[in-house]
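Researcher: I've been going back and forth with a colleague about how LacI family DNA-binding transcriptional regulator might be arranged in three dimensions. Neither of us has a model we trust, so I'd like an independent prediction. The organism is Alicyclobacillus fastidiosus, in case that matters for your notes. Sequence below.
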Amino acid sequence: MSKKVTMQQIADQAGVSKYAVSKALSGQSGVSQETRDKIVKIATQLGYFIQPQVAAGARRPAAGDGRKANTVLILLQNVRMQNRASSYWGRIVDGMIEALKHQELNMMIVTEHSPEHFLGVLNPSGLLGIIGVGHVANPVLLEVRKLGIPCILVDHEDDTVPCDSLFINNFDASSRLTNYLIGVGHRRLQFIGDISFAESFFERWLAFRTALEKNGIPVDQNESFLREQGMSPEQQQDRIAQEVESMRVAGRLPSALVCANDSIAINAIRALTSLGIRVPEDVSVTGFDDIDDVFQVAPALTTVHVDKEAMGSRAVDMLLRRVEAPDAKREKLLLSGDVVFRDSVAHVQPPKTMADNELSPRREP
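Model: Here is an independent structure prediction for LacI family DNA-binding transcriptional regulator. You can compare it with whatever you and your colleague have in mind.
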């Protein structure tokens, strides 16, 4: 077995003091973000975070002993529109609440951003475990790790906190959705979504690109679509409208827009409508997640259905498994998503040859 990685080793490689390493790895203030990122990166490379580390005084539930604590903390940081009112994140939490009730366990929802405040509301000895929902800031995850109690992450993972995680199978679902579009004749496809926003967005983009390449279709991607389109619906609509209009003027109007989630797809439909572009007659649009808001627009949106309540329930199952078997191998669980075929996709007549691909596909009558 290799020797334990020490803070001094990290400090030596980073060119900082051991004190700075300690502050950075515990999420404390007093270290610049640049230095903190450098220290965390080096610590990850050296394998510091995969060592068993339980904070002094922290209670680690043992097999058969885990049920003495009866409260699960749900960590839902109020960032990136992650909140109980969300038709996506809120439904995942609903699934957790029902599963915890069934197990006769208590729960507490924390939305705090600051790791200093975060520790102040916790009594580790009374916690069965923690479930992080969506993006959780790295400093907070470092504090969670110090508690030495089971932690599950839903739709997020972090190299600095190795733990069980739960995702929708983004790659598989996005592949099937893209292949469906190709199958009904689309050859001029564009992906819309900030691929640095979340791992799920990047995986959906990767599947989209892979599907095109496997079908011999050039990936003629508008790079602007892969960056942030604006945080508000109005900003997204304006940015999408600007890019689509530029492509139309250049004779490169897409036949289909594959959006990273339903919210982007809804804004894309509104942007196209504002330009007098018909959906799906002129441009088809797809989404991902199947949130309640898809019924706010017409035509009905083709998307990927994500069983959000099932995700929440399954996260609770994973946590209880970890409590009962704390030394079991870590798991990354992928749940399937189902393509829902609605009215926002048109069948088109694809070009007969790749040379004809410079021309817009001809719609079937």
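Researcher: What would you highlight for our discussion?
Model: I'd start with this: The mean pLDDT is 85. After that, consider the following. The first strand starts at residue 71 and ends at 75.
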